[in-house]
Amino acid sequence: MKKLLIPLVCVGLAVGCGDVPTGTDELAPNFGVAGKSGCYTVSGVLEFVGSPPATISGDVEANAEIVISTPVHVGGVVWSRYGKQTWKITGGIVTPLIGKTVVWEYEFLSIWPIGQFPVGTTKSTARLVEGAQRGSFTAHGTYNAFTAQARQEYHGVICP
Q1: What pLDDT, in 10s, does the model give residues 76-88?
Q2: In the chain, what's the furthest Cα-to-Cα distance?
Q3: Could you read off the pLDDT of 125-148 as tens digits, one per residue?
Q4: Each residue's pLDDT tens digit, 89-110
Q5: Which run of H or E residues covers position 98?
Q6: Rounded CA gap, 83 and 71, in Å?
Q7: What is the structure's pLDDT at 48?
């Protein structure tokens, strides 16, 4: 058994090492287009004060209308809201979408640690429902309940 195992391991190693890249160009990440899928990895900032519109900056530049539900107490210091964001894209790296409108459904979680009110931490998840093939993003940031000011950093993927 031992005599058979050693040659098999050597053959496996030789076959597995056959296509090792020699340059670094093919290993360098492209932060704009995600592989050959035609999708883009994007990140930036979503900000609003009071009622919308919000401003989207970064890899996607847009003005956004936000419709959000009444907060629902999840438990402890966490509150949840659901809504839609309609982004009118004005610029950025996703050139096929400039001048178009995309719609996201999202969940917005607010975390209000004791003693830190009126400023809470926010976490959001969103999925694209209209205006492009597919997409999703997550965001995190802060929300001030007195001024209704929010600032979230978003990171995600969008496929035109």
Answers
A1: 999 999 999 999 9
A2: 75
A3: 999 999 999 999 999 999 898 888
A4: 999 999 999 999 999 999 999 9
A5: none
A6: 11
A7: 87
Residue with tokens 């009110």: 117
* More confident position, 61 or 2: 61
Question: Does residue 131 come out as left (phi exceeding 0), alpha (psi in the -120 to 50 range) or beta?
Answer: left
Taking the C-alpha atoms of residue 63 and residue 155, their distance in angstroms, rounded to an integer, is 17
Rounded to an integer, what distance in angstroms lies between the CA atom of residue 104 and that of residue 84? Answer: 5
Residues 6+ apart with CB under 8 A from 83: 66, 67, 68, 69, 105, 106, 108
Give the phi and the psi of residue 10 in degrees, each rounded to 5: -65, -40
**65/89 Cα distance (integer angstroms):** 12
Closest CA to 83 of 137, 145, 142, 126: 126
Element (H, E) at 66: strand 60-68
Preceding amide of 53 cis, omega within 30: yes
Please give the single-letter amino acid code of residue 145. A
Q: Return the DSSP state at 95.
A: G
Q: Where are the domains of the chain?
A: 43-159
Q: Give the Cα separation of 42 and 137 in Å (integer).
A: 9
Mean pLDDT of 45-74: 90
CB 107 within 8 A of CB 82: yes
